[in-house]
Amino acid sequence: xxxxxxxxxxxxxxxxxxxxxxxxxxxxxxxxxxxxxxxxxxxxxxxxxxxxxxxxxxxxxxxxxxxxxxxxxxxxxxxxxxxxxxxxxxxxxxxxxxxxxxxxxxxxxxxxxxxxxxxxxxxxxxxxxxxxxxxxxxxxxxxxxxxxxxxxxxxxxxxxxxxxxxxxxxxxxxxxxxxxxxxxxxxxxxxxxxxxxxxxxxxxxxxxxxxxxxxxxxxxxxxxxxxxxxxxxxxxxxxxxxxxxxxxxxxxxxxxxxxxxxxxxxxxxxxxxxxxxxxxxxxxxxxxxxxxxxxxxxxxxxxxxxxxxxxxxxxxxxxxxxxxxxxxxxxxxxxxxxxxxxxxxxxxxxxxxxxxxxxxxxxxxxxxxxxxxxxxxxxxxxxxxxxxxxxxxxxxxxxxxxxxxxxxxxxxxxxxxxxxxxxxxxxxxxxxxxxxxxxxxxxxxxxxxxxxxxxxxxxxxxxxxxxxxxxxxxxxxxxxxxxxxxxxxxxxxxxxxxxxxxxxxxxxxxxxxxxxxxxxxxxxxxxxxxxxxxxxxxxxxxxxxxxxxxxxxxxxxxxxxxxxxxxxxxxxx
Length: 573
Known about the structure:
The chain has 573 residues and is of the alpha/beta class. It has three domains: 2-22 and 148-234, 3-Layer(bba) Sandwich (Glucose Oxidase, domain 1); 36-142, Orthogonal Bundle (Enzyme I, Chain A, domain 2); 267-457 and 484-541, Phosphoenolpyruvate-binding domains (TIM Barrel, Alpha-Beta Barrel). 48% of the residues lie in helices and 14% in strands. Helix 1 (36-65) runs antiparallel to helix 3 (83-96) and helix 12 (359-365) packs across helix 13 (367-380).
């Protein structure tokens, strides 16, 4: 029996035989002295076939997994049509008179190396997009058939070096009970898509391909993040029970779908979901979400070659508001920059983009972009309960300027005879320590706060959360973070404002009891985390949660806080 550790990308337990995904060999040899027109025609034909396949995958993914996942293939289409990639390949064919596959591989390799060497994890992951697209075109040029994962017709656990978006979109979850990969992290496409497929997944094992052979019996533990090869009968029985317990737990959680979110002694909070596209609303409602606590509008701007129009944005916002049927929707205005780039904006390269020209800073500078979005939001406001939130606010002046622009666009629309909702709550994300410290002043002017813990933690601890060497400093339970959260909540409540949280901490089982005790009003998380969170909150008593929070604030280290919470949550089992 061999334990192979990795990263749990999707919860659940699977037991099945291994299906090793062997990549077809795409051996490219350089051929000289070829007639350019013939090679250019071969390239054009291969590109057309690849575009057709990607379009089909996009449509299937849209139907099965929603618009956000389908946008991955929109990005692939952009690559297949990108003159910065295709142009140099064609030029190489003409000037060097080489075969199309050699020219493509040489040029694409340069792009892949460039992406892999970038600091941003998001951009490093884009190397996978380039590899996926290049491999697809090369297969057509070489006449090699790529493995058809959709053809798997027996229960297996898929084992691969990595899974591309094209691979993941083809998986038939009737037969593929789970998957595991050598590479990949929490931001890789396979990790992002796994929860939507509702099959367990363990990525980033580093060695599963070397340690597992086709047909080996595997246990895949997506909860603990481990793959077990050749388990003994005792271990098999243990994990069969774990799998049954997990499924029974899911069934219990499902019963809470239409229940209010309240502690055992009747203290109510709101459980909301984070979304990226209108298609994600179905998941919010299926999981009993009471609101959308964060609509990340940047997905409207990504994976395309130009800005979305006011009409496109209006239709997206309107769709979300209508689908939520009167439940609150917090829309975050454009939060681009940092690890999210828009090539068509041609933003300047910065030494530290997370601390640079991004989010509201960009929007206040590029008012043409900002005003278009504000107009679209205002027009959509009559179709539901819209709340608008500005990201990366560091000073009161930034909030006042943002609000002033919104009011100007509101007046213009009304002058044009376009209806706008009478009352729209305006809030800010609290993700910069200066804002948390000055929360008492902000609370006099905003309608609500939403604490963005992902950035608040890294800015407070001066530690890039994507940097493995300092990842130990990304500490949600550090008492300094908890004290900032308390400062924000207390300041808001003093002015009669509500406070939400939309970072990963909001759905964290260890953090929830403390946050309830601190008085957090709204928890916004991934849709799949809502029912487990509701179940946990129902077991808490407000008085106990307040006592726990008070004790946590007096701790000296994150580890002390974790031990405190572990004892408290353990007693609820």
